[in-house]
Amino acid sequence: MSNKNLIRKTYPRVRTTTVKGQQFYVVDPRRQKNGKHIGGDREFFSSKKKALERADQISVELHTEGSSSMNMDAALRVMALKGEALLKPFGKTVGDAVKHYHEFLKAKAAKESSQTIATLADLWAEKKTSNYASKPLRQDTKDDILETRTMLKRNFGNFKILEIERRHFEDYLDKLKVSQRRKYNIRSRFSQFFNWCIKQDIIETNPLSGITIEVPEMEVQILQPEEAKKLMFLCMEEFPDLLAYHAVCLFAGVRPSEASLLEWKDIHIDEKTIHINAKIAKTKESRNVDIHPTLEEWLKHYQGKKRGCILDTSNNRSRLELFRAKLGYKIGKHNPNSEKWTLDIMRHTFCTFWLKTFNNRAHLSEIMGNSPSIIAKHYKAAVFTSGAEDFWNILPPEAVK
Question: Taking the C-alpha atoms of 92, 94, 96 and 98 in order, what is their torsion angle to the nearest 10 degrees?
């Protein structure tokens, strides 16, 4: 190349050339390596300014991206230019497109390699229900977790955790032929699993977020005095080991989950007080519950051991199911046409009759471990004075005057 034709001497060089009497400016990105030209093809411009701008661009590319950018073949360059032209109306560049597609491919690969919900549900349940867990759970809470694991595996087990979406759960919940309350509880339980996955840095968001289920307000269910009497006398006659537990739930309003863990050392008959310590309280706050004279008589009647928990933890589930079946409630295959046992029915019964007798919502909220607003919201059932009297007069035979 004649030096007199050189317009730019540094790499990439620019020179002039004449073709059929017309002058062009040639940008030459080629370099010599082992006696061969390497780099891109020469480019011809009719404008000196455009040729120099292109030379500057090539120089910058070489500096920022290395020599590989200069070895791009012509077809790839044409593809890049066409892509740039297609994206220009949208204010995007080939670089934007490459970055976007790269993120898409990474996300796709992550989904495909992520663990299944079945695998993670097993791990979650194992961690939560283990006897060595940092935060021991009540047995009923463990049972809920194990049931949730089964439901997740049965309905969503084959899904990869990063593939599952909110629409999958919306479709599932919409098709369930259960009450709104049951749907609400299922959604809440599933959310607990996905919130755990978030804490483990497995996912970033909970797919059930944004799913709302309206639950109509219903009056609480209570036992009528004759039903409550039947319950206590069945305990006395056939299930004496369950007597103290049911007496505390029915005549003190203690939550079933709390009563199942209540120890005899926290029942102070002489002081007429039951202490619900923070370890077993649902609210994680301790409280004291009054021992009504009716409850006192039943606790005195109890002839079993008075140490450890008031409910035998070794086989209480099977015993409670058998007891409720004998009461006439639907349990498994027993009494298929009857109503199911309502978990807090004894607690609701106590609240209703206590409120009718003493008419002090503020004190009742302290006993129950609820806010006064909750007491006011749920306990409105009309109860005749004679009904309340009949309830408190449910006593063991030796206490009847």
Answer: 150
